[in-house]
Specification:
2 helices, 40% helix, elongated, 81 residues, mainly alpha, 0% strand
Amino acid sequence: MTIEVQIITSVAPFVKSETAKKHPRLVREPLKSQDITVQFKALGRHIAKCQRKRQSVRVPAMRASDLGQVLRTLELKRAYA
């Protein structure tokens, strides 16, 4: 009984090269608590309250800057809780 083995390799252009550029990560200063709008502070408090009660929360679609404000509010709530 003979077993034939074939090795299948992909063509070079379709393989991700090791020299591919990675996207640079932008490091920004954290938001100050007074820079967060009232609407996103309220949403952050609501999420934190529901998390303590172990309830699910529906987070609406928002821009990245708005989501950053909500996440910063959650960080502040955990720091002072």
